[in-house]
Amino acid sequence: MSAPETSKPVEALSRDEADFEMRVLAAQLEKHDKLYHQKDTPEISDADYDALRRRNEALEEAFPDLIRPNSPSKRVGAAPAAGFSKVRHKRPMLSLSNAFSDEDVTDFVARIRRFLSLGEDAPVALVAEPKIDGLSASLRYVNGKFIQGATRGDGTEGEDITRNLQTIADIPKELPDGAPEIFEVRGEVFMGKAEFRALNERQTEAGKKIFANPRNAAAGSLRQLDPSITAERTLHFFAYSWGEVSEMPADTQTGFLEKLKEWGFVINPMTKLCDGSTTALEAYKAIGEARAGLDYDIDGVVYKVDRLDWQDRLGMVSRAPRWAIAHKFPAEQAETVLEGIDIQVGRTGALTPVARLTPITVGGVVVSNATLHNEDEINRKGVRIGDTVVIQRAGDVIPQVVRVIEDKRPADAVPYAFPDHCPVCGSEAVRPEGEVVRRCTGGLICAAQAVERLKHFVSRDAFDIEGLGAKQVEAFYEDGLIAQPGDIFRLKDRAEEISTREGWGEKSLTNLMAAIEERRKIGFDRLIYSLGIRQIGQATAKLLAANYGTLPALTDAMLEASDPESEAYANLINIDQIGKSVAGDLAAFFHEDHNRDVLSDLESELEIEIFERAVADDSPVAGKTVVFTGTLTTVSRGEAKAKAESLGAKVAGSVSKKTDFVVVGADAGSKARKAEELGLTILSEEEWLAMIGTTT
After folding, report:
1. How far apart are CA 215 and CA 76, in angstroms?
2. For this structure, is 674 an active site residue?
3. Long-range contacts of 145-149 (CB under 8 A, 24+ apart)
4. pLDDT, tens digit, for every residue of 279-301?
5. Which of 98, 574, 665, 670 is least surrounded by Cβ atoms within 10 Å, i.e. has the fewest?
6. pLDDT averaged over the chain?
7. Catalytically annotated residue among 8, 131, 455, 643
8. What pTM value is reported for the model?
9. Residue 611: Cβ within 10 Å count
């Protein structure tokens, strides 16, 4: 693939011409990034490099629908070279749920009270701290010495950046006597605004490219293969949490932070202990008012439950803790013109309207398209092509249309007619009764769904095949190399063909084949999630894996569950957190012959590991099915379920002959009566707690 001719004005390009040029530019920029950042052997001048970047940005502004997830505009420098080894976190580095309003914060506190069975007015102390717009890092100390530092990565596995972190003055190299034998500190690496401006001045003077913002500058500095470059760029570190520790030095979040400060770590000075949601919201307002005057970027406030024993009891949901939440600052807004509405088809066939906008800068980012969610939202907001609209980046991430400025509406603007056929494959697009989304009925015959499902299949939380990202999936699909997931594991048979493609040298091809082979062994829960079944996220995939154990067992059960009167259907909706809607989507997926063919094909290529819950070695309820009914007094229903699941039990929502234990609280009704009729083991709350070894 040769370099594109860039003399032709962007506005004169056809969509196909733009697509071709963007692919070439992506390959060129990736090559030059690696030469510059990894090998320090640039082949072109900075001016020529910047020209390539500007051309790519102009194309993306003109053709926003062609922007790929791994676009050069979204990349800072290059991926780490082989010098960055992998580090597996002893405790996952979790993400946070978000709050966008005061009501979200009060609801957060209310959920905590309900989960812990506290009174409506019971005090819940929270620690409020600024949410730093930086990069999460983990520091591991053994016998008081800093031995390893790592990036967050995917939360489970990060990259070893110890040498670079050692250059940061805020990070103690040794801890005083009395520190735990194993002590893992977590926090945020960032660059100050003044230091960011000074760095860009030096970059400009040296004729080098400048950084877009302090976070990108910090990322580029922290991921240098040469730590001396990192040392030249002043970075800072705020400590705020922990990973693996042999002994906790405190019993509250505030006590932990005080201990960190005592041991030489830097704690954000605006961190405040609050006695509840009202005080927390006051802290949020104060931090927001101080935001502009801070020498570092923040994008919200994080609230954490102060008591560590409560944090332990609250635990986590999926990849986020129940005891913490990030309250984001309001999104910045701007006015622009809606030039058109494009329809995107997702992996589940959902037709999503996307507003095509006159490009406008919002919160420091150029926005040229925004979501309109669904056809009801278009009608509710009265959006018409040609309208002047207010847009915002919700949570500073996803652009969305807020409202129409009707006073500026042109005379020829007409209401938008939502399509009733798929724009990709032409199949009928139907809207089931009671739903807001219209979906393509083409299934896997629809190219949009097939490609999007393949992208999901290789995504980070699914198979996570290194070197096979969205761009490669699109290219391989378009050229007939892959059509369904199983084809990925047969790419070795077409290695010679791939080797002739632009950008695929011997090393990259070898690495891809090795990465594919590495993923032939996959956990059952990840396989379920990778299939992209509607409403089946990671948490639900784990529930299904835990309850059915193997793919053949799940397939047989779901085929039987297509009959709502069947025992299999009853067993399915009996799984806690799986209702009739989810059950319907599961049964529909497995009922389709082509989906089962895909599964059979995958099964022949893979080694699927049986899902195993992490449980205590001496758990008396591992593998048992438990139903809770009535009002519990010692713990809430939610906490009781979470505890049971942590011990390896399966929590069901209704009683059946397969139920092992029915735990009855006050005012137990029909479930208790049915348990008696079936002759099941019925336990009081006290008997249950005694069985699992809990006294409080």
Report:
1. 10
2. no
3. 145/173, 145/174, 145/175, 146/171, 146/172, 146/173, 146/174, 148/87
4. 999 999 999 989 888 999 898 99
5. 670
6. 86
7. 131
8. 0.54
9. 21
